[in-house]
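PROTOCOL LOG
Step 1. Enter all chains and additional molecules of the complex.
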Amino acid sequence: MKKKKKYEKIVFQSEKEVPMMPMSVGSMLFNKTGAWRNIRPVIDLENCIQCGICWKFCPDVAIYIENEYPVVDYEYCKGCGLCAEECPTKCIAMVEEEK
Amino acid sequence: MRKVIMGNHALSYGAMLGRSQVIAAYPITPQTQVVELLSEMCADGTLDAKFIKVESEHSAMAACLGASLAGARTFTATSSQGLTLMHELLHWASGGRLPVVMGNINRAMAPGWSIWSDQNDSLSQRDTGWMQFYCGSNQEVLDTVIQAFKVSEALHIPSMVILDAFSLSHTYEVVDVPDQDKVDEFLPPYKPRIRITPEEPHAFGGLTGPEHYFELRYKLQKEMEKAPALIEKTGKEYEKFFGRYLGLVEDHRCGDAELILITSGTMGNTAKVAVDMLREEGMKVGNLRIKVFRPFPFETVRKILKGARKVAVVDRNISYGYHGIFYQEVKSALYGQDSNLPLFGFIAGLGGRDITPETFREIVQYTKEKDRPEEEIVWIGVKR
Amino acid sequence: MSKETKEKAKKMKLSLPEEELMNSGHLACQGCGATLAMRFVLKALGQKTVLCIPACCWSVIDGPFPYSCLDVPIFHCAFETAASSASGVKAGLEMVGDTETTVVAWAGDGGTFDIGIQALSGTAERNDDILYICYDNEAYMNTGIQRSSATPYGAWTTTTPVKHFKNRPKKDMVAIMAAHSIPYVATASIGYPEDLFRKAKKAKDIKGTRFLHIYAPCPSGWKTRPEDTVKLSRMVVQNAIFPLYEIENGEKYTLNIKLREKKPVDDYLRIQGRFRHLSDEEIEYIQGEVDKKWGKLLKQCGAN
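Step 2. Run joint prediction.
Step 3. Record the structure below.
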């Protein structure tokens, strides 16, 4: 199950809200990098052998495991294609995003 | 307990009594004795600290920043080439709001290689956001280090405690070394407002766009503006504990003086001797020795100069293309004031050229004789 | 999925812990090797870790102030200071009572081989208790693909254009680190995540300076397809350009991935835009150099 971590866009209204030195106070999860992609991975679960390789090689942590199967998190997937390339049964297709 | 110690060792004692926890330093003449004594103190257990024997001054400051960010009280010492090698990281210390305390022995910048007294090294770091304290005696050095820890940690702004090469660093003077217990009472352990720890993970010092940088720097300046008052308050507190008050400046007979010398460091003490000598001869002179250069004590300087008829600033440094740096700051302080006070700017003693009471006689003579300085920069002691 | 598929679903056995200390939303390019390196290493080191990251791609990947994409604290330190900052952080943490947290210097090849080498050498010579990890994308990628001393012979970069391609060999950083008599030095590749995980875990529990050199492809800088990143990371081991081995205490060499059949460098070079300009003679030269180095390494590993 994908754990839900908290995130929000942060806006400082005045210098009083800004920390003393630049330090992070929020998560990059607010940044939905799914908007970057032109192609998206589509996993054919019928042919998935549950090896976990696609989950392992995602640089964006955009594949999580749910009910023993990989699921793509399209909010963050950048469409790099590593999952499709590494899948041993080639059950992941890279499909053009509809405009 | 009264001891006869050299200026460098006064720094070491200050760092030890201040219970520094991490020291990272690289040797450079004439600072070596500072770190050698601290090394000994760490080795024999007098000081419970980690001494990182780094391979350069740049790494020394980098290690201090890391240790300070981890929440430890940090100290280092350097001089001239070493200080300027750290330059990039001096900005990091102030912008990162890390209260590192550093001793700097004022030594001339190369080329040619010079190990003698000159203020260009520390003054060229004027804009890095560090507080700067110019000491006139070994006692002052020790007292300043301890107070610097307190002020720096309250404001989260780093401090430089500065002393002249050889005339202070290697000169032995009687120093009243306070008891550790009393220092502990005066200076409690460092409680950082923020620190790096996995218990509360933050990314420190990351990419900062135009939409945020300005506020961060505004905050640093605002804190720095609190420093003069805090330094005076801390000084009064220190006086209660140890009987000595430092303050922002030393006013020696300026009250009724017509001609006021403005000096810093050990030549400021030489100026005192000269003032007393000239007073004997009937001249109404006084000496204003500036102890805290950053933040510059504009209010105090203006107040003390109010009654004067002429002011002579003596710089043991120069900002090429303009003038000595104390001169520039004093000139700024006097801008817009009622009196059109004649300001004479002297440059003397670069590269360790000796400054004696006779030097001050010459300076006072020149200033007395002329209504206004004939040259922008009056060079004293240069073979022309 | 069909009911059948759901029923035959077995329990998934992942070769690495499922917990993530790196989050999505970061600013890395598509197919970035450096992010996979971080992801795998953090799984091995756990949350009680502090990273000192000098100027490099990861200074940007992590995200701007006031955000971060990692669940461990980071000190974004000055460029040359990865090792010295880490030494300082470690000393500071110990003095405030934390002797457990792993202090890691996480730097690119620029901050390790070039501008950061002095501080790294100092730290290693003192055997300061830090884990130094270099993720190597073989050029100054963050500033726009300029050559570093880690850039391999023959590569195009913006400062080694095709007419003046990089004609010096890659600096042997691993040998330099081994010469410092530190307890642990190892190479790793994101194409072999389990090996990388094992090495990071092993390094975590050793005291003293540990150095990990991780191969991490950069599609943007190497002009390769983003989806080839992992494939390249396997090929580079299989053709012995980047063999996987460990050196303990400066003398015990262990080869981790033995090659029954060493692949030719040719296939690896030809799928990278940065090598596209190489002639057959130049590729032959590269093959010769790789063979020589491989022979030498086999001897060093065989001696044990």
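Step 4. Note key features.
Chain C has one domain: 19-302.
Chain C has a mean pLDDT of 96.
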